[in-house]
Amino acid sequence: MKDTAPKPQDLLEIAVRVARDGAATARRMRAEGVSAVATKSTATDVVTAADRAVERQVIADLRVARPGDTVLGEEYGVSGDRPAAGAAVRWILDPIDGTVNYLYGLPNYAVSLAAEVDGVVVAGVVRNIATGTEWTATLGGGAYRDGHRLHGSAETDLAQALVGTGFGYDPARRLHQARVLLGLIARVRDIRRAGAAAIDLCLAAEGAIDAYYEKGLNAWDQAAGGLVATEAGLVLGGLKGQPAGPDLVVAAPPALFGPLHDLLVELDAAGGP
Ligand code: IPD
Prior knowledge:
The chain has 7 helices and 15 strands. By secondary structure, it is of the alpha+beta class.
């Protein structure tokens, strides 16, 4: 990172402030009543007025705090076109990760906001909008849940592992993901599908689940939670040496990563539509 690059801790402070304000807006809007306002990739991939309002608010707040940065958001794509002098900072935002939970009132949905400097995620916050639980991390500075340092699970046996995962919105992809699950479920303790990838990564970081994998995640689903996971000591990657990405995200403590990776290769978890 260049000497002129902003410090991860400074970016985290901005991220936390802006994410808290965004979460407050989402909470207020939910209390006022929520409905799906549109669908995106498929009929079950919904977007609410709150997703859009929170994204607009976060973009506006970031523009005030750091005028030269760009923002990649789930709902509006890339905004900000003035390249910063010195290091390039890109913010990666999911205004409400777990939109279906938000719609149904299941208290597991979050604002996820990460700051990337020259292509490397250096700070991230995931804030559960319903409960106020907040996970944060800075590159090299550790991962925290509400101020408590995180270290991931100590489990070493995949057969005893509680494994989180999720499903995409495309029915063909879901079928492939279900087939993978069929091969996995008898070889682990159990699985969890909590409905918000950013929170899943944080739950793996704190050891509330032992490991997590999912195909089809976008940058905004994994940027902040991925940093929380790696800073808690987890290995984050794809299959066969690939980085974590749309083909597959696997997050697991070092002792579980290899066995889970090999099982996911055997089950062709990164394949299919
Ligand atoms: C979704 C959630 C879900 C995961 C999907 C994501 P959204 O994000 O994180 O848990 O399984 O892959 O698309 O649509 O709620 O922002």
